[in-house]
Amino acid sequence: MAEKVLTMADIGEFGFIRSIQEGCRFSPDKVIKGIGDDCAVIGPYADKLLLISTDLLVEGVHFVLDTIPPEILGRKAVAVNLSDIAAMGGEALHLFCSIAVPVQTPLRVTQSIYEGIKAMCRDYRLNLLGGDTSASRNHLMLSLTVIGEVPEAEILYRHGARPDDILYVTGTLGDAAAGLRLILGDLSAQDPFAERLKAAHHRPTPFLQAGRLIARSRLASAMIDLSDGLLSDLRHVCEASGVGAEVQQAGVPLSESLETLAAMNDLDPLDLALSGGEDYRLLVTVPGENRAAFEKVFAAGSPCRVYPVGVITAEKGLRLRKPDGSLQEVEPKGYHHF
Amino acid sequence: MAEKVLTMADIGEFGFIRSIQEGCRFSPDKVIKGIGDDCAVIGPYADKLLLISTDLLVEGVHFVLDTIPPEILGRKAVAVNLSDIAAMGGEALHLFCSIAVPVQTPLRVTQSIYEGIKAMCRDYRLNLLGGDTSASRNHLMLSLTVIGEVPEAEILYRHGARPDDILYVTGTLGDAAAGLRLILGDLSAQDPFAERLKAAHHRPTPFLQAGRLIARSRLASAMIDLSDGLLSDLRHVCEASGVGAEVQQAGVPLSESLETLAAMNDLDPLDLALSGGEDYRLLVTVPGENRAAFEKVFAAGSPCRVYPVGVITAEKGLRLRKPDGSLQEVEPKGYHHF
């Protein structure tokens, strides 16, 4: 019998990352955090830390050019990258963008992608400082690297959550996942709801201002951005912090658009809110004694609302508190490329 | 008549880079150099500048997995990236590596690539601090970002060359291009020459030690690494510096292996030395008054030899001084992906 040839599918992306994570530091000086958070952290340089994050977007895997205008793709690629800087409380400063383009791709497509990238640079005061340009065989691919700064005393990691900390998210959940299903034609909805949900998928907002506000307040204990889905990213925080969490079903914020879509299509919006990816909200943990002060930071005039969605527990694993008061073990069903 | 749809082939990689280079700086504070040198330069942080360089390697464009063992591919990807840090006189510190892998790729291939990457991290005391892992549809792709440091007073750019500066290279030229043609079966040669030339293509050495030595000496005026070929990269230096150059044919250093291969295959080794890419030697310009001091730096015991290959001229353009004393205008024929 022939031996099975293992592929990435057999160990998964996270398994692979774990397998390469060991033995990666040969100049540990000035490395604060390597693989395993939203950004790598180096420094300090004076009282600042440098944040670096990279993202890869592959045609046919992360996007399909038929369903996203190239300028919007450029914008989204940057937004996703910036969200990692936001998740550590940083200010984004410099961007590097490499692109591999099939030889037959019309120049205006490549230029539109760059127009989207540069529009984001303008909107978020970033410097586009470099990258690489290459041909590719069949598919377009983007690789972005963003560099940011954060005061050393303010940085927030995934690993700071403690039992009884309160969980907050910075916006409604599940909209982007619903938008993707609308774009793919799996669901239907009327405007303005359809437009809003599609926009949530196409035009995510990096919560940089909110991230800085939270970091500067020094009231939070941990932070992450929601790229894979609430449960999946919450598990990252819990594993890094050695804790568990309980999510309050009634507290999970849903948009009117998502609720309308769910009613029309007879589906459970909670599924999308808990497990749908690409919301790019921030998930923040706040010690109970800071609750009032934290909510005051996000009172009228702040860049966004925050919603309490649960609590960190000493008991590991994730549980969902149902409206009837019962508690149910839950498992993330994040998106897997392999 | 249908209008022709323009592609990257119509404006070329450098034309495209020029078209996106404008309007890229929205926080010019702390940006010393953006697009247009071997690395972007930010800072200063205390008396140091940070160097950042990115490289993209696409299967079927930059490499063919049938002709390069995956571990060697991983090593080479890092070497190429480190060469950009060497070209500015920097010390390489941190590496980020993103990889897109076709679903059917055997796991041992992906792991071997990473073994090569980690071996280079060990050899050059780098920290592998992050990256991204994704599926791809058909082809493997690597995107690397390296971060280095250089003392502010020592950095070398492409733009510092002045008329009468002497041109040096840090090793023989054309070996990597000859090696590629051997690997592809276009030429033949006997060992040990064949092995040495293939190794020049597969296992380029980043000249980090030599780059630091040159920068620290403060005797040079400009530096670049030879990735596209001597003439092509020399033109980058000349354009950035507003000068021209004359290359002395008799001074171009050729290895014994290349000369043997050329004789066996009835080809002109000078073609490969002037226009073959991927040598990854450093090209350095040195003011005439520093000549003796510079050559003393590279006397016995230094990490490599340096070879004078020509001189910078006030007159723009590139010229080749033939052994008979005549002067010939030359044009780079660099490699083009599109």
Commentary on this structure:
The structure is a homodimer. The relative contact order of chain A is 0.15. Chain A is an alpha+beta fold. In chain A, the strands form 2 sheets. In chain A, strands 1, 2, 3, 4, 5, 6 and 7 form a 7-stranded mixed β-sheet that branches. In chain A, strands 9-11-8-12-10-13-14 form a 7-stranded mixed β-sheet, with helices on both faces. Chain A has helices spanning about 10-20, 70-85, 105-125, 175-185, 195-200, 210-215, 230-240, 255-265, 270-275, 290-295, and strands spanning about 30-35, 40-45, 50-60, 90-100, 125-130, 135, 140-150, 165-170, 220-225, 245-250, 280-285, 305-315, 315-320, 325-330. The radius of gyration of chain A is 20 Å and the shape is globular. Chain A contains 10 helices and 14 strands. In chain A, helix 2 (about 70-85) packs parallel to helix 3, helix 4 packs across helix 5 and helix 5 (about 195-200) crosses helix 8 (about 255-265). In chain A, a hairpin with a 5-residue loop joins strand 13 and strand 14. Helix content of chain A is about 35%, strand content about 25%. At the A-B interface, helix 1, strand 2, strand 3, strand 4 and helix 3 of A face helix 1, strand 2, strand 3, strand 4 and helix 3 of B.
Q: Main sheet of chain A?
A: 7 strands, mixed
- The radius of gyration over CA of chain A amounts to 20 Å
Secondary structure: helix percent of chain A: 25-40%
Number of helices of chain A: 10
**Largest interface: chains, residues each:** A-B, 80 and 80 residues
Round the mean pLDDT of chain A to the nearest integer and report it.
93
